[in-house]
């Protein structure tokens, strides 16, 4: 009773009849069933000269991975595709105002969009439905994981910025039959991607640019829509794990100049640091791709530092050799002086024996002659003893002068007395100055290139 009264009120007020509609009524009206394959066999136009305009929109959901070794870019995208089927239309007023209906994707024709850079098939779950609007517009939204190849330039690794393209075109229809146009321009697509992006990881999304070009193949023009994603690497992890350790090893190599050259610890220390740099070079070989147009700056950074530390090691070996040679020369000189001293002592002992023999002879003289002959002989003996002591003192003084001269040569080298130790000191000082200047100029160059 209440329903009849409500229906009567609607008829009196609006002047329309009460009608119950369903989506199936629209499908029956369009004859859109699984048995009817007419809607999916051919391009959806009433006249073959009409061009099917496919509108496409790609939004970046996430950057799953960027593999430099294989030069692969793996984004997760949200794609929205729209086109018009000229064979489908209805009046919403005839179906209770229904403007759109969802149908399975295999009931209608869909454009064959081909991703040129894709190297693996998309295995992500697909949306099984598409929407059909009353004016014939068909649209479907889908999420896809695209594994695409990307030409990377790792010259400025780890401060590099990459541009990876995703080119979309039809594999069957030329530009005279189907055109692909973007729904959003570059600025709007960039804004949408920044708003909905979920994960970026090591890479930071900067922008996306959209270009629509026509490619001629076999004298047939083909429409191609290219999305260029610009991403920037976050360098903090590589700086902490790679760049800074090499810088620390270089600082240790510079500090090793404070170690005494005549000790063996300096040479062993430099060899240890050089081996540590070699291990980091092996790690770098695993990170960077095997093929690159230009030598990466980080490879130049490592090789130059490795070469400087190798030169430092060779310089240490040379200085150690010169110091050892100087030590051997001084040892031979000391041995020669000891031999001369022994020969002199032998001669002195012979003279002393003669004096003692003379004294014994004097003692054997009769007592009457001793008193007359003792004084001149004693005076002569005393004079000989004084002369012998003076000669010994002169030898000691000469040894002290040579020792003083040797000590002076260790701290100052003159042109007329250039020993191996002097050459070692000069080489060490000159190489240290060269080392400091080279390191400063190299770091100035490498950081300028990284920031440019």
Task: Write out key terms for the chains shown.
50% helix; 452 residues; alpha+beta; 4-stranded antiparallel sheet; disordered N terminus; 7-stranded mixed sheet; Acetylcholine Binding Protein, Chain: A; rod-shaped
Order of helices and strands: HHHEEEEEEEEEHEEHHHHH
CATH class label of the largest domain: Mainly Beta
CATH-assigned homologous superfamily of the largest domain: Neurotransmitter-gated ion-channel ligand-binding domain
Tell how many strands the DSSP assignment holds: 11
Architecture overview:
This protein has 452 residues and is an alpha+beta fold. The chain has two domains: 21-234, Distorted Sandwich (Acetylcholine Binding Protein, Chain: A), CATH 2.70.170.10; 238-365 and 387-452. The protein has nine helices and eleven strands. The strands form two sheets. Strands 1, 2, 3, 5, 6, 7 and 9 form a seven-stranded mixed β-sheet that branches. The chain has a four-stranded antiparallel β-sheet with strand order 4-8-11-10, covered by helices on one side. Strand 10 (203-217) and strand 11 (220-233) form a beta hairpin. Helix 7 packs antiparallel against helix 8. The longest helix has 68 residues, at 297-364. It is rod-shaped and about 145 Å long. Residues 1-17 and 357-378 have low confidence and may be disordered.
């Amino acid at each position: 009773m209440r329903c009849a009264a409500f229906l009567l009120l609607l008829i009196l007020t609006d002047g329309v009849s009460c009608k119950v509609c369903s989506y199936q009524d629209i499908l029956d009206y369009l004859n859109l069933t699984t048995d009817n394959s007419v809607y999916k066999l051919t391009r959806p136009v009433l006249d073959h000269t009409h061009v099917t305009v496919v509108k496409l929109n790609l939004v970046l959901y996430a950057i799953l991975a960027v593999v430099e070794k294989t030069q692969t870019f793996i984004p997760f995208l949200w794609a929205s595709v729209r086109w018009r089927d000229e064979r489908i239309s209805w009046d919403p007023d005839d179906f209770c105002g229904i403007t759109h209906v969802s149908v399975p994707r295999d009931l209608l024709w869909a454009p064959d969009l081909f991703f040129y850079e894709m190297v693996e098939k998309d295995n992500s779950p697909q949306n099984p439905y598409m929407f059909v609007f009353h004016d014939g517009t068909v649209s479907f939204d889908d999420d896809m994981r695209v594994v695409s190849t990307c030409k990377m330039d790792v010259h400025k690794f780890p401060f590099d910025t990459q541009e990876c393209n995703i080119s979309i075109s039809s594999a069957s229809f030329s530009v005279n039959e189907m055109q692909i146009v973007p729904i959003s321009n570059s600025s709007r697509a960039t804004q949408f991607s920044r708003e909905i992006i979920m994960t970026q990881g090591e890479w930071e999304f900067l922008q996306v640019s959209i270009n629509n070009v026509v490619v001629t193949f076999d004298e047939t023009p083909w429409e191609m829509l290219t999305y260029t994603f610009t991403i920037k690497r976050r360098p903090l992890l590589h700086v902490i794990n790679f760049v800074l350790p090499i810088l620390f090893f270089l600082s240790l190599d510079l500090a090793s100049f404070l170690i005494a050259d005549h000790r063996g610890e300096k040479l062993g220390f430099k060899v240890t640091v050089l081996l540590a740099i070699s291990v980091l070079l092996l790690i770098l070989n695993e990170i960077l791709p095997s093929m690159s147009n230009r030598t990466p700056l980080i490879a130049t950074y490592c090789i130059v530092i490795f070469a400087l530390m190798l030169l430092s090691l060779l310089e240490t070996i040379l200085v150690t050799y010169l110091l050892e040679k100087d030590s051997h020369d001084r040892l031979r000189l000391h041995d020669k002086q000891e031999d001369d001293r022994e020969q002199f002592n032998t001669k002195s002992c012979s003279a002393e024996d003669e004096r003692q023999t003379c004294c014994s002879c004097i003692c054997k003289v009769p007592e009457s002659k001793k008193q007359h002959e003792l004084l001149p002989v004693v005076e002569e003996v005393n004079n000989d003893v004084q002369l012998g002591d003076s000669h010994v003192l002169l030898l000691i003084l000469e040894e002290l002068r040579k020792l003083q001269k040797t000590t002076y040569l260790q701290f100052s080298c003159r042109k007329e007395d250039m020993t191996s130790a002097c050459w070692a000191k000069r080489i060490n000082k000159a190489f240290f100055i060269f080392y400091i200047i080279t390191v400063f100029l190299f770091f100035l160059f490498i950081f300028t290139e990284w920031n440019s």
